[in-house]
Design a protein that fits this description.
Layout: H1 3-25, E1 33-40, E2 52-59, E3 64-70, E4 74-75, E5 78-79, H2 91-96, E6 109-110, E7 116-123, E8 135-144, E9 150-159, E10 163-168, E11 175-181
Parallel strand pairs: 3-6
Antiparallel strand pairs: 1-7, 1-11, 2-3, 2-8, 4-5, 8-9, 10-11
């Protein structure tokens, strides 16, 4: 076959492949969202400190994905590493993720929150959630409070099946709600 004809066919095929990729790539793929609502209850105690809270996922193999860690980032308006000293009080998080993590983590670390409901939205493919493989997962939310207690709430779920699930803590955490929108 003529070299010119073969080259012409390759160029046509390349153009068609490029056009199809461009055309279909222009249609945005629906990214899945994972929304976590964390309630921190108002406690009537003599000495109240806002709790340190960690939120993470574990897959069936036990691999963990760190989603959020709320702890003391500042002291008297100045950046401080003092708060990192108490991260180990969130014992489950510390054993699974914390001790190997250099804090603060961009997009994950945040200041402690006052009592109330706090919503976190994570989009698949974007940090810190990343790309989740299809399968069974557990959402874990752990809280520890100075001169207070500790609590761990777990919500098992299947990814990417849509739905809403919740669990309720007994002291340090209120209702934890997980909404999956594939």
């Amino acid at each position: 076959m003529d070299k010119f004809l073969m080259r012409s066919r390759r160029v046509k095929f390349s153009f068609i492949a490029f056009f199809a990729t461009t055309l279909f790539g222009a249609i945005p793929a629906q990214a899945a969202d994972l929304t976590v609502s964390v309630e921190i209850p108002a406690l009537t105690v003599a000495e109240y400190h806002t709790p340190y809270v960690s939120v993470w996922l574990e897959n069936e193999k036990g691999d963990s994905t760190n989603l959020a860690v709320w702890y003391q980032l500042e002291e008297r308006g100045q950046k401080s590493e003092k708060g990192e000293e108490w991260l180990k009080d969130m014992r489950q998080w510390w054993r699974r993720i914390g001790r190997e993590t250099d804090m603060p983590v961009d997009g994950v670390s945040g200041a402690t929150r006052k009592p109330g409901k706090h919503e976190l939205v994570f989009t698949e493919g974007k940090a810190p959630l990343g790309k989740l493989a299809k399968g069974n997962y557990v959402l874990l939310v752990e809280a520890a409070r100075e001169v207070g207690g500790r609590e761990l709430v777990k919500i098992p779920f299947e990814w990417p099946v849509a739905g809403e699930q919740s669990a309720k803590g007994s002291t340090e955490l209120g209702e934890i709600k997980l909404t999956v929108k594939p």
